[in-house]
Amino acid sequence: MLGEFELIRRYFTPSALPAQVITGVGDDCAVLRLPPGCDMAISVDTQVCGVHFPAEADAASLASRVLRCAASDLAAMGAEPLGFTLALTLPQADEQWLQAFASGLQQAAADLRCPLVGGDTTKGPLTLSVQVHGSVPAGAALLRSGAQPGDEVWVSGTLGDGAAALALLQGRLAVDAAAGAYLHSRFYQPAIDFPLALALRGMAHSCIDVSDGLLADLGHICHASGVAARIRQADLPLSAHWRAAAGDTQALQWALAGGDDYRLCFTAAPQHHAALQALGASCIGDISAGSGIVVVDARGVPCEITATGFRHF
Amino acid sequence: MLGEFELIRRYFTPSALPAQVITGVGDDCAVLRLPPGCDMAISVDTQVCGVHFPAEADAASLASRVLRCAASDLAAMGAEPLGFTLALTLPQADEQWLQAFASGLQQAAADLRCPLVGGDTTKGPLTLSVQVHGSVPAGAALLRSGAQPGDEVWVSGTLGDGAAALALLQGRLAVDAAAGAYLHSRFYQPAIDFPLALALRGMAHSCIDVSDGLLADLGHICHASGVAARIRQADLPLSAHWRAAAGDTQALQWALAGGDDYRLCFTAAPQHHAALQALGASCIGDISAGSGIVVVDARGVPCEITATGFRHF
User: Fold this and answer.
1) Does B14 have pLDDT greater than 90?
2) What is the predicted pLDDT for the residue at B13?
3) Between B73, B122, B127, which is nearest A28 by CB?
4) What is the pLDDT of residue A270?
5) Is the pLDDT of residue A59 over 80?
6) How big is the CA angle at B98 (ends B92 and B104), to the nearest 5 degrees?
7) Is residue B283 domain-shared with residue B158, that is, in the same domain?
8) What whole-number distance in Å separates Cα of residue B205 and Cα of residue B225?
């Protein structure tokens, strides 16, 4: 039987570490060095077998997904990755599973430039908990609480892909092979757009990543900032890949409340409109005094909203 | 049913945050500020219901134990606590359990001056994962790899208490009420000696916390430093509370291989002997060229070692 120390040595000891990692895997703590004048941003994301993924899920894909989902929170703060830790709870040390998991993790870590620096392995029901660490210049973190009346509301990429992918994986959506490949990749390799996130530091007043669904997450911004938002339904960016198969009503529902998109939703003053458009973001609405969110149709008439995003418990 | 956001708001939102916490619970990331010239030390510790503690364990005690066990790794690096995150996986949102857990967590956080700054709550088998963050002046972290031939080997506090406490909790040891109270406290409120740990920065060549057992943990120092160690059995500091009840052979076994003590084991040049003694540490042996650990009796004759410390898997 593979022991804990050997397991860590064999699967979770990177060969080379970047300069910010003073001490990596193998001591009581990892030690990270920040660039001068920077604060450290920290977020943890846990995924549980049977709750967040099925037992038969591909280990490499799981590793990619849990690291990318956690890194999405760094992007939402305008923070640049420094490194991550992994708390891995396993029912048994299955070497084939571990090999695939470690390989998916290494690939995602390389893609995100976010090295594994430490962790803990324990015996128990399969649970993956990834904590990411990033650096952000002191005072420059993109908070949920900075939205101002007059701001425009933006999102990066397309919305609803996470929910469409889940429907596909659960057999509730049928699409062609190209769309299937697109959705599979969006689910297991969500693209975390760090170049955009870092560019937002000087422009965005508030930012969040869309993990619970646009309405829920923009709702967090509105609540934390004490403002209201208006969303123009016609301007929501939807992927053509699955839209025709799902139908317009379902597509809109997923875009507003689907969750798991790992896109950025942010607000910025209108003076940055052209720059943000050039960065590929979509302007979907605006912020005003008040509270709550209204979604309006192409004529400006409010739509009824029944979905409120994904919640645990 | 209590929702995830309400659960966090009600039980895991501290009322006041110290100056190093720029952003606490409630945004995409927590943001921590380090003192100038300092690196960040990071460690994660996971405890699983049915593996590390029984389902009926007191929630407040569990909270205290998991935070203190994680903080022990900061002390072992000579790092000062900045804050911690909690990844909490729960089968259901039981308010009575959560109330007790949050209260135990708050008390331990206050004792250790290590505030809760963020986390994640998920549904699933009960699993507690705590990640601690501390600051240490650049280059001053106490590593496992710095032990030098000629160093003395030291431990803080007494050894074997963790194993004796486990034996008591499992009905394998009978002691009087005072010893029972002592062992219960050592198990659920292990004392993390940060004043000693910070004092070691200028003195110790290497350091580790005794979590897997003295032989296993000192073995990590020897392996990482490329040195050998000799331990004087007669100098091992044992608590009188349970020693008579357990007998000398069992006491020695627990002190060498018991685990869960959360004391510091460190090495330092002999010039610091008096200073370290004044700090309450016990000198138990010395470091030489070579590899491996030998335990000698009062006449200097090597004893046979059969125990090798606790391992997962």
Assistant:
1) no
2) 79
3) B73
4) 98
5) yes
6) 145
7) yes
8) 10
Residue B9: what pLDDT? 78
Q: Please, what's the largest Cα pairwise distance for chain A?
A: 66
This model of the complex carries an ipTM of 0.91
Residues whose CB falls within 8 Å of the CB of residue B207, separated by 6 or more in sequence, listed in order? A28, B76, B77, B78, B142, B143, B144, B197, B200, B264, B265, B266, B267
The answer on A200 and A122 residing in a single domain is no
Residue B305 — very low, low, confident or very high, per pLDDT cuts 50/70/90? low
CA dist B304 and B149 (Å) reads: 23
Q: What residue has token string 């004490």?
A: A226
Residue of B6, B28, B128 for testing the chain A interface, max A β-carbons within 10 Å: B28
Full-model pTM: 0.92
Say whether both B212 and B239 belong to one domain.
yes
Residues A180 and A236 in one domain: yes
CB contact under 8 A, A27 and B131: no
Cβ separation B125–A123 shorter than 8 A = no
Give residue A14's domain range. 4-137
Name the maximum alpha-carbon separation found in chain B.
66
Count how many domains chain B has. Answer: 2
Instruction: Return the CATH number at B178.
Output: 3.90.650.10
Residues A127 and A191 placed together within one structural domain of the fold: no
Which residues are CB-neighbours of A102 under 8 A, at least 6 positions away? A11, A12, A63
Q: Based on C-alpha coordinates, what's the Rg of chain B?
A: 20
| Cβ neighbourhood burial of A96 (10 Å; 0-12, 13-18, 19+) | exposed
Pick the residue from chain B with its C-alpha nearest to A146.
Answer: B27
Across the interface, whether the CB atoms of B30 and A41 are under 8 A apart is answered yes
- Interchain pair A23, B74: CB under 8 A: no
How do residues B205-263 score in pLDDT, each as one tens digit? 999 999 999 999 999 999 999 999 999 999 999 999 999 999 988 999 999 999 899 99
Q: Do B148 and B257 share a domain, yes or no?
A: yes
Residues B115 and B212 in one domain: no
CB-nearest partner of A313 from B23, B123, B127: B123
Q: Which residues on chain A are in Cβ contact (under 8 Å) with B69?
A: none
